[in-house]
Amino acid sequence: MRRVGWSSVVACSFACACSSTGTERSAPGPAAGRGAGGQSGQAPSASGGDAGQLDAGRGRAGQTGAGRGGAHDGSAGHAAAAGASGAQAGQSGTSCKRGVAANVAPGPAFSSGIAWWYNWSLKGSGSVEFVPMVWGKDSVTGTIPAGVEYLLTFNEPNFHTQSNLSAAAAAELWPTLEQKAKAAGIPLVSPGMNFCGPAADCNGTDPYQYLKDFFAACATCEVDYVAVHWYNCDLPSLKDYLEPGGNLEGFEQFGKPIWLTEFSCDGSASSADQEAYMRAAVPYLEGNPDVFRYSWFSADPIPKAELIADDGSPTALGQVYLGLPGACH
């Protein structure tokens, strides 16, 4: 995979002090695999300082969604599969949520501890369920692998350095993804969102507003789940990011099960910090019925967060992840 260096996010357009280091890699092309994800444009910790109160308005998805995991307009096709998955999401502990976001395929040791993994591309292997991703515009025409159960979509489209799509552009491409998903009989996961900054490098800095604009531009779009990324290293800010009623709006407002497809501490954190955050966050994610799936970020830009060694075996942190309550034993 092509590696890129770190880039600092130095400003935000919303009322906060964003501090993060970018770990995103460019997408080399459809189905070719993206490098490390996330980490760019994290919002402030809700537990430290005044994050600012963002607009608490609700997006269309939160008003018209057909229940947990249901299709946006309840039409046939992948709606049935999504509805079944959504029923599981509403019952904490009844299905395995745990996964890994990585460039290295998890080896056999992971098959008894996680349910799924992805690598920011349409192709993958390994001993556990692989979830493909349509990373950006160039991979919309790619082939969806046979036998997959879900389809992830556009990676951080509000970032110019990522899939770089305005909400209107993403909405324009969405019907093609719907056709592919219906043909495969699988549900669709929304664009994977994160805070972005500085504003000049973004198609909007606020991930909540981006999704509202996306649904407004695509009034009949079917979206079964919402995908998000988060890199603050504390549990209170993770809760604030997902749940409404705090300093941030919360993604639960959209009324759809959530996939937290990238999370860990950032690159400045020690190995001990990574483990402490993991031990705090995972029980919360397991117990939150609005979180359908989650995947720890395991890739080179944050080496102390890696779970998978080059040979596919678990690292020391990987062993911790596999052993925490709720693992897929």
In order across it, which strands form the biggest sheet? 5-4-3-10-9-8-7-6
Total discrete domains: 1
* Overall morphology: globular
Known CATH architecture: Alpha-Beta Barrel
* Average pLDDT: 78
Q: Helical content, roughly?
A: 10-25%
Structural class by secondary-structure content: alpha/beta
Briefly characterize the structure:
With 329 residues, the protein is α/β, with parallel strands linked by helices. 24% of the residues lie in helices and 14% in strands.
Describe this structure in words.
The protein has 329 residues and is of the alpha/beta class. It has a single domain (7-43, 61-323), classed as TIM Barrel (Alpha-Beta Barrel), CATH 3.20.20. The chain contains seven helices and ten strands. Residues 1-94 have low confidence and may be disordered.
List the main descriptive attributes of the protein structure presented here.
alpha/beta, TIM Barrel, eight-stranded parallel β-sheet, 7 helices, disordered N terminus
Task: Compile the SSE list and pairings.
Blueprint lengths: L6 E3 L10 E3 L37 H5 L13 H12 L8 E5 L13 E3 L10 E2 L20 E5 L11 H18 L3 E6 L13 H11 L7 E6 L4 H8 L15 E6 L7 H17 L3 E8 L17 H8 L6
Helix pairs in contact: 3-4
